[in-house]
């Protein structure tokens, strides 16, 4: 389960600013994409990166992910574990070891 | 702190498949962006959505976020809380209440 | 065919700055995604937009698209027409009229 | 100016399917981001790529870019040239030659 303290802090932050009105699932999904682009910008010209900047941009992506999970009424950690079970079935160890090929090309 | 069980499950999943070799920070950041695009696709033509599909795509974004945090050696929940402190300072309650304007336009 | 004047101007811009070394197809693809995120930011909280800002962000996406097409040795307009032929076959007029459903759900 | 034949073909494709109703600027901007993610997926695990697949995904990004430009009433090639003039001013040749640094760090 996502740490209660994080969810509580995010909810309070949003409530104090009366921002729930902007946080439709659609707008939160757009926000995840926008912040993912800023995270990617840390690696625009190659693999070297500034760890502090990456952590900050990653935090922005995660923040919108948590807000969207909360809006959907799902637990972030639980949906990750649920999806992992599905992915494990699509990528059996013996077929997928050491290759980055997609499941439909294994 | 991110739930140990989730991190443990993700690390085991990657180790069993020998996939750490593909998981450079750069590749994980690309993966976050790619999955964020798939999440956005749930809302491509409007605000209506299939909750189950959104949860699955959100799980994919979160999975790569957790893997990237782990690779950086930071705790996902902690960087969210740290960034929240910064954001609170940029968006004081009295100035930002009820508006979606960016901090430099408040 | 993409207007020669545009391609010529872009190539000259890159050559003068000795930037071709950064413009691997991978880096250009990342750049398209990053700029697409900035374009999306114009619509983060809803459908209203600043037309001038949207045009500027769209121009950035297009610029990296043209540079990537040029790097691949393909003509931007031609690949659009080629893909349109494929898409027309996937979305026959009689089945797809007035619906935003994906081809596999028509 | 964008080739008339391309614009004509795209407009006819949309009109025949009665899809203009889905093509708000916001939805087209989301679509550009979604397709940019699919383009990026061609490079998810490294710089190697399938040129045919990249060209197809790039065509999808370009298609939505052209549709958005058309919706805004601007010419794709013209906004690229306009933006290039701005970018040239931000990145003077003598300061930016051979470096991928952002303009605010030159």
UniProtKB/TrEMBL annotation, chains A, B, C, D:
- Record SUPFAM superfamilies: all-alpha NTP pyrophosphatases
Q: Which InterPro entries match?
A: dCTP_Pyrophosphatase, DCTPP
Identification of the protein by name: Nucleotide pyrophosphohydrolase
To which species is this protein native?
A: Gryllotalpicola daejeonensis
């Amino acid at each position: 389960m996502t740490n209660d303290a994080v969810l509580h802090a995010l909810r309070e932050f949003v409530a104090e600013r009366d921002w729930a009105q902007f946080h439709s699932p659609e707008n939160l999904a757009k926000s995840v994409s926008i912040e993912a682009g800023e995270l990617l910008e840390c690696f625009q010209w190659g693999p070297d990166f500034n760890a502090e900047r990456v952590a900050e941009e990653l935090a922005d992506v995660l923040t919108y992910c948590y807000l969207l999970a909360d809006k959907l009424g799902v637990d972030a950690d639980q949906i990750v574990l649920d999806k992992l079970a599905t992915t494990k079935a699509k990528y059996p160890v013996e077929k997928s070891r050491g290759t980055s090929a997609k499941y439909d090309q294994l």
